[in-house]
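Hi W.,

Here's what went into the run:
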Amino acid sequence: MDMFTRLRTLVDLVVPADEFPSAGEAGGLDFLQRYLGERPDLWPRLTALLESAQPTAEPAWGWFAELVSAGFYADPANGANRDRMSWRMVGWAPEPAEGWSGPVPVPDVPPVTVSPDRLAIRYDAVVIGSGPGGGTTGCVLAEAGHRVLVVEAGSWPSTAELSRDHLRNPRSDWGLLPLSGPEDDHDLRVLETDGRARVLRPYEPGWANNAMTAGGGSRIYGAQAWRFEPRDFAMASTYGVPDGSSLADWPIGYGDLEAGYAQAERELGVAGSSVMPPVRTGPRHDLLRAAADRLGWSWVPVPLLVNSVPYDGRPACQGCRMCVGFACPVDAKAGSQNTVLRRAFATGRAEILLRTRAERLVVDDHGRVTGVALVGRTAAGQVWRTEVAAGAVVVAGGAVESARLLLNSAHPGEPTGLGNRSDQVGRHLQGHVYGGAVGLFADEVEDLIGPGPTLSSHDFRHGVAGIVGGGILVDEFIPLPANTYRMLAGSGLIPRWGKESKAGMRELSRRSLRVMGPIQEVTSALSRVRLDPSVTDALGVPVPRLSGDIHPCDQQAQAMIADRAAEWLTAAGATRTVVMAGTGAGPSAGQHQAGTCRMGTDPTTSVVDPECRVWGHDNVRVVDSSVHVTNGGVNPVLTVFANAFRVANQMTR
Ligand SMILES: Cc1cc2nc3c(=O)[nH]c(=O)nc-3n(C[C@H](O)[C@H](O)[C@H](O)COP(=O)(O)OP(=O)(O)OC[C@H]3O[C@@H](n4cnc5c(N)ncnc54)[C@H](O)[C@@H]3O)c2cc1C
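Here's what came out:
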């Protein structure tokens, strides 16, 4: 049998024909060719499988089966889901049930960009990173009359690009670069686990990606918009400091952020807050709400940075099924790029420099920060470097990259990194360990009304016996078919391949529900970002090396929240539940990364003061999730926005 025929046979073994076509008939070979075009390093793996006398032997077969299935259940543009065959089979479509009420995607509003050769010599403020922290600070400063340069490592992709691909978004995890960045697979990081260091590319687990694109994570996030609560700012006082942890209180309390939370909710627009009603719900919400009532649990609607009604010049959500991980096709989701950054540009005093990395902060002979050193690539691929002078510098690159930047900014007065006299930069790296469960039901329960999250129980956020902290539970975003496959196969609810796998997808896709939640992590000083001593990225900048682990308390909290999720689903009528717990090796970080430039009142145990000024540098502020002392038992972004408003308002006073 020639190789082509053999490959076709194997592809059809993974997804065989029944009343619906096989993977081969749906375009599986085209898909594999395209996929391996992007991942040529995997050709030998495929060749070995094809040449093997026992191709279905694990682990190679499991990899192949998952890959072929991913293509089969992904969007048709990936080549293996011709005419949406698999989507029709599982009863899924990206559009809202009623169809779009107008053309999508709506036209993009172009940013005000500047090219490297047109940079001013000096700006009042240079903001590094255009995510929630950087965008908000840039906006407040520009509106107060300051000249602002925002520097962003990523580009500004169109909504059309960011609203379709099921295999290249930050929630897909299929070994391909996400379209929301990083764009270069030479953007390396090093992960140290059990004394062994591995160099990782951005699509590998453990790289700890959020997003690297204009708007940062908020361009494509899920937009859950929770406030931390008072105990989240006082974890050490509430629970003590567990052995082996660096748990601490914030130097500010809930009251200090309350005005910032209200400003963020009002100025960005949060559905389910006092600003506008929650997004539309359906039978799934009713089912889970009734179950919570039966259990005697309290519940609240999920606040989302998504318009439920027209707001701030942008339309209401139409309820499509591709929210988390994607740009919103109708621009109903509020992110940094279509709210605060847009306002900053409207002043005429702010511009954004895209595809450019702040390499280090420039320090003069007196140890004062005077500007920022920038590095990028021309369209022809040539590396360029320049410096801009800045009255103030705002660091907002996300928790991993902000720490990297300060460490890369070592100078004679601070030879181990700017703000790092006490060896605190990069420590206390944290994110959110998630726990949850999937439930199978006798009837269809997935109503496919996007975005998905509609109600949440907060009964386990604090005060659970034997648990430090805790977390919330929320019904999940509408899953993509490829992700449903991975979830059902990963929990052993369907086989990875074959007739039963396909039949399982058909039968269970809409008869399964997931309830998940983040838990508040117990921080450790050993979970950290350092600079790797030898690895650099494609621009020659030393890369972050991540090391450490989660604290044992986190596993307890995760198990607790997963059990409560299963209990909720059972009360809702699930005939079977599978809990989802467990973590990969290494520190927690990823999409909710935080903590690496801890805020405090003591320069020997923190990096920034309560106004987020780097100790010893009154014109340098860190204004992103890096400053979070602890990260709450809820998604963190509203706190990033709120703190940025607080700090930026202080800067303009
Ligand atoms: C798929 C997904 C879903 C999410 N869902 C939610 C949710 O529902 N609710 C929630 O609360 N949070 C959610 N998050 C997390 C949320 O997006 C982050 O908490 C938030 O974006 C953090 O904001 P930030 O300003 O700290 O940093 P970021 O958003 O990470 O922005 C940092 C920016 O700085 C740029 N940058 C970094 N280093 C440099 C440098 N040296 N020079 C120039 N630019 C640089 C990066 O490219 C990036 O664009 C989600 C994230 C993802 C990816």
